[in-house]
Specification:
By secondary structure, this protein is α/β, with parallel strands linked by helices. It is about 40% helix and about 15% strand. It contains 10 helices and 11 strands. The protein has helices spanning about 10-30, 45-60, 75-90, 105-110, 125-130, 140-155, 170-180, 195-200, 250, 265-285, and strands spanning about 5, 35-40, 65-70, 95, 160-165, 185-190, 205-210, 225-230, 235, 240-245, 260. It has a 6-stranded parallel beta sheet. The chain has a 3-stranded parallel beta sheet with strand order 3-2-4, sandwiched between helices. The two termini are about 30 Å apart. The mean pLDDT is about 95. It binds NADP nicotinamide-adenine-dinucleotide phosphate. NADP nicotinamide-adenine-dinucleotide phosphate binds near residues 172, 190, 209, 210 and 233.
């Protein structure tokens, strides 16, 4: 079997188009422009690239982008003051604090200081609780992107066996909640899981979010399963730098029914879902109908 390629790059483009057309409607019908504020503390090179990319795509979608760059030695009090101002600014519908933060700042405290309804990363404890109890919440962008691709590929996910490898708060746990919300039978695997190959072999859907290059080989995968590879690992091969996922694409693609590539799979969906969350937050803030298909 040769797997169908789930093209995250193309899918992300359709999500961005939906976002942009909803933004146009919000402007024309209601005179509202959604706004996303991104706060970057310090000069981590990877974070700078992400923040630039987020700002660019926000503007391309017709939204307002606000960037707050703060020094690496910013105090907690100064950062909290910036977040407080954004929380009360009616032009700002989404707030994202780029992680990781410098070590002297308490990440949980900072994230939980964001107004939950503007928490477009979905990391605030209130949003985690709302998602866990099946209530309307802001949904973390990466798992939301995975869910959208799975729904698009399968239609209904009801009754499918899903195995999520990884239990991080950012990907694994919310991914498992979303799959449970769509009535999958969900197993969360992690570094202490016994017989991981045997567990993965049961899965109709495998979501790998581990951070270990090409850890999941094709012979762990059930014939015809759908494989979503969240991993982004930089490796050196044949003297060249390369991006690979947590799944060994070559062997897995021979067994799976469908698979996301790395790069070009989950990655592009993450920022697209951030834009989607910003529009959703804007609609909720203004008591307007939410765009269909842009949240869980
Ligand atoms: P993380 O916080 O480091 O969590 C990794 C998880 O993998 C942990 O739960 C860990 O288990 C588990 N794990 C580690 N080694 C394992 C093993 N040998 N067998 C089974 N499970 C194992 O990572 P993360 O933030 O969730 O990210 C995971 C990957 O996704 C990374 O490559 C990251 O770069 C990528 N990512 C991509 C996007 C995107 O936009 N595409 C977004 C976020 C993350 P324990 O809990 O037991 O330690």
């Amino acid at each position: 079997m040769t797997a169908k390629l789930i093209d995250g790059k193309a899918f992300a483009a359709t999500v961005r188009e939906k976002v942009a057309s909803h933004v146009t409607r919000l402007k024309e019908d209601h005179g509202i422009t959604p706004g996303l504020a991104v706060v970057l503390v310090g000069e981590d090179p990877a974070s700078q690239v992400y923040v630039r990319s987020k700002g660019k795509q926000t503007i391309e979608a017709g939204m307002n982008s606000y960037e707050h760059r703060m020094d690496a030695d910013t105090t907690e009090a100064d950062l909290l003051a910036v977040i407080d101002a954004l929380n009360t600014d009616p032009a700002v519908h989404g707030i994202l604090v780029q992680l990781p933060l410098p070590g002297h700042l308490n990440e949980d405290l900072i994230i939980n200081s964001i107004a939950p309804e503007k928490d477009v990363d979905g990391f605030h404890i209130s949003n985690v609780g709302l998602l866990g109890t099946g209530q309307k919440s802001m949904v973390p962008c990466t798992p939301l992107g995975c869910l959208m691709m799975l729904r698009d590929h399968h239609g209904s996910l009801s009754g499918m066996n899903a195995v999520v490898i990884g239990r991080s708060n950012i990907v694994g746990k919310p991914m498992a909640q979303l799959l449970l919300g769509d009535s999958c039978t969900v197993t969360i695997a992690h570094s202490r899981t016994k017989d991981l190959p045997g567990v993965v072999k049961q899965a109709d859907i495998v979501v790998a979010a581990v951070g270990r290059p090409e850890m999941v080989p094709g012979d762990w995968i059930k014939e015809g399963a759908t494989v979503i590879d969240v991993g982004i690992n930089r490796i050196e091969r044949d003297g060249k730098n390369k991006l690979v996922g947590d799944v060994d694409f070559e062997s897995a693609a021979k067994v799976a029914g469908a698979i996301t590539p790395v790069p070009g799979g989950v990655g592009p969906m993450t920022i697209a879902c951030l834009l989607a969350n910003t529009v959703t937050a804007c609609c909720r803030a203004n008591g307007l109908a939410e765009p269909e298909g842009l949240t869980a």
